[in-house]
Amino acid sequence: MANDDTTANDTEGVRDVVAQLVFGSLAAQTVRAAVRLRVMELIGDKERTAAEVAADAGARPQPMTRLLRALASLGLLREHTAGSFSVTPAGAILDPGRPGSITSLVRMFTEPAMLRAWEHLDDSVRTGDVAFDAIFGKDFFSYLKDVPDLSAEFNAAMGQAVRATAAALPRAFDFGRFTTVTDVGGGDGTLLSAVLREHPALTGVVYDTEEGLAQASATLERRGLTTRCSLVAGDFFRSVPEGSDVYLMKSILHDWPDEQAASILRHCREVLPPAGRVLIVEPVLPEVVDTETAGLTYLSDLNMMVNVGGRERTRPDFENLCHEAGLSLTAVTPLAQADPFCLIEATAARITT
Predict the structure, then answer these.
(1) In 23-49, which ranges are continuous DSSP H helix?
(2) Are the CB atoms for 305 and 311 separated by under 8 Å?
(3) What is the per-residue DSSP string for 208-225?
């Protein structure tokens, strides 16, 4: 039988785990403040005092010291001597001027409009309703359309979020067998640009709403792809452009309930040539939670519930969606460099009589 000291230590350890989870929202707001005050940008590659950073940020020295020490406790800064700080490798990605920056992603996922729906997670669990719609009187994407600055931030955040997939996908599938790829809901074109640069014989189409395509021209120009890739504005709930033999979509289906997700796939099936492929890039949940599955994927699932009404899915869920759309799921390949994302491959289903 365990002694009282062992039981007390176990209880303390459990309490610490739960406390870390509860205080996670406070850590997120600390990171948000650092981005809004340009802390990492102001420190740069040097060691600077809190007073110097405060002066450049238009802040007071003593509160800035407290913020910088909190950031140091989170591993984003290092305090060398009392009140003197430098940026760690983890903190560097919060500097918008450095490669791999995720500042737009931070701003978007700490945006008050997104977080308000989370306050009503319990209501969404009880009712199945989308909390965002009830709070704001419109769906998330309609809200973005009415707030151009936030829409631009969302596009930038999605461009940052797709980088790991853009590095992994071009070599994870034999695109060389095909001629044209349409990226359905392709946003700023980051993902398709990576595919086209790796496969020079391919041409491409980025298909999205006008708001979604707002930054795509600049992406294609930077990558030298304006002659090999076109931009088409439209609504994937109505149709997708004809003429491609690969239809690609990353983090699109998880935004929508099953009926609407199947509708998007059905429109791809309607224009898919006999030897064409539909490629879906999303996490694939195991049928039973295990420790190997990234916990963030389950938090993403809840985020879909409260903000847009979609969900993350298991392989059988994707098989059912494909079946509803007249497609057959043929392969699921984990993208190790872009964990937890997988490449889900589908073909036109054979019609039996």
Answers:
(1) 24-36, 39-43
(2) yes
(3) E-TTTTTTHHHHHHHHT-
Q: Which residue has the tokens 């308000």?
A: 116
In the chain, which stretches have pLDDT less than 50? 1, 353
Helices 190-198 and 216-223 pack at an angle, to 10 degrees, of 20
Phi-psi region of 201 (alpha: psi -120 to 50; beta: other; left: phi over 0): alpha
pLDDT in tens, 49-95: 999 999 999 999 999 999 999 999 999 999 999 999 999 999 999 99
Which conformational region is residue 158 in: left (phi greater than 0), alpha (psi within -120 to 50 degrees), or beta? alpha
Alpha helices in 162-201 (DSSP H): 163-168, 190-198
SS3 45: coil
| Cα torsion 113, 114, 119, 122: sign | positive
What is the reported pTM?
Answer: 0.90
CA–CA distance, 88 with 57 (Å, rounded to integer): 19
DSSP state of 287: S
pLDDT in tens, 310-335: 999 999 999 999 999 999 999 999 99
Euclidean distance between CA atoms 241 and 234, whole angstroms: 9
Question: Strands 327-334 and 246-250: what pairing?
Answer: unpaired
> Quick one: CA dihedral 264, 267, 271, 276, positive or negative?
positive
| Annotated active-site residue in 120, 199, 254, 267 | 254
**Integer Cα distance of 93 and 80 in angstroms:** 20
Please, is 129 exposed, middle or buried when counting C-beta atoms within 10 Å of its C-beta (0-12, 13-18, 19+)? middle
254 among known catalytic residues? yes
End-to-end Cα spacing for the chain: 67
